[in-house]
Design goal:
40% of the residues are buried. The protein is α/β, with parallel strands linked by helices and 238 residues long. Strand 2, helix 2 and strand 3 form a beta-alpha-beta unit. The strands form two sheets. It has a five-stranded parallel sheet, sandwiched between helices. A five-stranded mixed sheet has the order 6-7-10-8-9. It contains nine helices and ten strands. The chain folds into two domains: 124 residues, 3-Layer(aba) Sandwich (Cobalt-precorrin-4 Transmethylase, domain 1), CATH 3.40.1010.10; 100 residues, Tetrapyrrole methylase, C-terminal domain (Methyltransferase, Cobalt-precorrin-4 Transmethylase, Domain 2). The structure holds S-adenosylmethionine (SAM). The site of S-adenosylmethionine (SAM) has 26 residues, from helix 6, strand 8 and strand 10.
Length: 238
């Protein structure tokens, strides 16, 4: 019997936002696999998982390097090495819990593994996690969708190229990967008359959590874990 590959979402950072199901899988899996951005670096997802589920005696920790690069060859090589390492554990009949920050199906390295599921060749189970999408909305107390609202989630650079269409088509925009684009977003949203309707949230649910209107985002350092939420229309009277 080959093992099961679990994609386990561990939420946005706060250990008590890891689900009960995720903790159960993390405690019983003989192998915890965790993505890290560079060899020798640390995996944030693994730190969250450990804070929620603790250390389990005899459990193997498999840290897998997924370099943050657009170079397809470097990504392919890293993915092949990760798949091979996971596959050998599954072939030994061991379940592997691959942890990802937030939800495993939202802009996650787990998708690299799913794309290679033919290579992994076993059963795959996804354990959903609290995504940054809902975590940043909760931090800013901004409604994501009400009535027949439409919600768009996309990377900030893509939104910058398509703002008029997005504003016309969606009541809420959640812009991820926004850290390096705050100044450009502020200019574009000001030009669209939406600056007062935009919030920036960094490190939601973590000790360094920061929330500000984009209009005065100077207090929010432009780190990697930063998202912007825009409500494109005034709320309807209820
Ligand atoms: C590669 S995506 C990972 C998304 C993740 N799988 C999820 O479901 O939230 C990384 C982006 O998610 C957003 N993000 C993740 N965690 C966050 C947090 N705690 N606070 C604010 N934004 C966060 C940031 O925009 C960051 O650039």
């Amino acid at each position: 019997m080959t093992g099961i590959l679990y994609g386990v979402g561990v939420g946005p950072g706060a250990p008590d936002l890891v689900t009960v199901r995720a903790v159960a899988v993390l405690r019983r899996a003989p192998v915890i696999a965790a993505p890290r951005p560079a060899a020798g670096g640390t995996s944030l997802a693994l730190r969250i998982a450990r804070a929620a589920a603790g250390e389990v005696a005899g459990q193997e920790t498999l840290e897998l390097t997924f370099p943050m690069t657009r170079d397809p060859e470097a990504r392919r090589t890293a993915r092949a090495a990760a798949v091979e390492a996971i596959r050998s554990r599954l072939d030994d009949g061991k379940d592997v819990a691959f942890v990802t920050e937030g939800d495993p199906l939202v802009y996650s390295t787990f998708l690299d593994l799913l794309a290679s599921s033919a290579a992994v060749d076993g059963r795959v189970v996804v354990v959903p996690g609290v995504s940054s999408i809902t975590a940043v909305a909760a931090a800013a107390r901004v409604p994501l969708a009400d009535g027949d609202d439409a919600l768009a989630v996309l990377p900030a650079p893509r939104a910058l190229g398509d703002l008029p269409r997005l504003v016309a088509g969606f009541e809420t925009l959640v812009l991820l990967k926004a850290g390096r684009h705050l100044a450009a977003l502020r200019d574009a949203l000001a030009a669209a008359g939406l600056l007062e309707r935009a919030w920036v949230v960094a490190e939601a649910s973590r000790p360094g959590e920061r929330i500000a209107r984009l209009a005065d985002h100077v207090d929010v350092p432009p780190g990697y874990f930063t998202a912007v939420i825009v409500r494109t229309r005034a709320p309807e009277a209820r």
